[in-house]
Model the fold of this input.
Amino acid sequence: MLEFLTTQLLWWHWIAFGIFLITLEIFTGTFMMLGLGLTAMLVGIVDNLFHISIEMQLSLWMILSLLSLFIWFRYFKDTNIETSGQSNYSLETEGTIEKEILPNNRGTVRFDSPVLGNTVWTATSKEKIEPNSRVKIVEIKGQLIEVAKI
Done:
């Protein structure tokens, strides 16, 4: 098999393989295949200029591919976390009391950022909290949120 590849694999096969990977990237949208395609094209260019062995071509492509993946995950991949949605909250989420909460009773709180997809919630507290007071989440109990003064 290696003898077949040595005699039949030409430099332009690497270029065609790189173009195929870049074209495949159009349909995936991850930008990972872009690096693999560019490295395959680079191996084709190096093979055309220096006529290196098939073992060296494969080694060069693997090394450059791993390097491109490392660079992609290290520097270019988007790591932003969306702050809205169904479960992006923390117990440090703060809000303002809209309707007074009496001890072990219900009132209304407007949170600064969405909690479980909504900014206005019915809340309870173990203490009396006046309107316009700042509060934070203590515990979420089903559809009720327990809050405390900051």
Summary: The chain is about 45% helix and 25% strand. The longest strand covers residues 105-115.
